[in-house]
Amino acid sequence: MTVEIRVGDFDAFFAAPFEAYGADSPYVSPLKGDLRRLLGDGNPLISGAGDGALTYFTAHRGARVLGRITAHVHGASNRLHEVSRGYFGYFDCVDDHAVAAALLRAAEAWCRARGLREIAGNFNLTAMQQIGVVTDGFDHAPYLDQVWSPPHIARLLEANGYIATFPMATMEVRGVQEAPSVRLSDKNRAISEDPEFAFAPITRRTLAQRLEEARLILNASFADNPMFVPVSAEEFHFQAKDMKWVMDKRISAVLHHKGAPAGCVICVPDMNPFLRRIRSRLGLSTPWHFLRHRRSNTRAVLIFAGVMPHLQGRGVNPVILDHVLTRAKAAGYTSVGNTWVADVNPMSLAQAEKAGSTRMHRLHLFAKSLA
């Protein structure tokens, strides 16, 4: 039976990875409503000032959905980095070459029709969200906002002419309760004792201000990173809409220097076990599962960390990491994961190792010329 490609079938798009990987896989989906919102016209990345466009495809044989993929373009990224690149994302499918080829051809054709000369992914949907294809560490259950894919996804991409590039890793600090404190040098301790440096309180009243400070720190600290595009206030708050309600104010931190934002770490409890239990759908039992998860969860995830450029190299980051891990231990967490760190960012990798992190997953982007 031939593979049928459909455009814009959201219910099939949501169901595809569950059908492809089965109930026992480590894969965890965003909430169905959140996924619909990310792919919809209300996403500022796609419409309006975001200067982008997106579509999505699903693959079917008869009544069964076998896979999915998005295709999109981020105009601001192409202009800033002087490339002509389209992206694929959410590429999930059964281990079937014909299905993978049909989905990838659909995404490639969409990009070619817009005059783009290359395609890369997974980008779900930007470098500040879930990116990459897992190439090692498949047995590790992902934290919230970490990508997971089975071994055949990378293999199917290579079989369709894609080349692995831009290596990354997800990291994890295990045994937080038994872990020693971050080793602080005399320079670090001087910052801790300097009254010009102070951790700003994160409360319900100050949350909006702290998130805006986090956005400013994100844009400044990541400005020189490959593929990064400054995030507008509209984009940031659209993406952070749900994070506001789950962010752990006990362990997230915004550091001020002379009253101005200096650095931050944003952490949230790992919601993936909860999402697995409810299969990422809201129902009558959702509140019960949520309360159960909140009582039993011992994993947190570091969404991002950054230090203002003029303070980088002065010993600020270890002070923030020590603050966060000390608070995480007091809050009862036993492990803290992070989203991803690229190999081209050795300073971040070194800081993660200094905090006692070990690698969970190996990830790569997969790219192909469309010329």
UniProtKB/TrEMBL annotation:
Task: Name the PANTHER family for this protein.
Answer: PROTEIN YGHO
The record, for InterPro entries, names: Acyl_CoA_acyltransferase, BcerS-like
Naturally occurring in which organism (per UniProt): Pseudooctadecabacter jejudonensis
This protein's name: N-acetyltransferase domain-containing protein
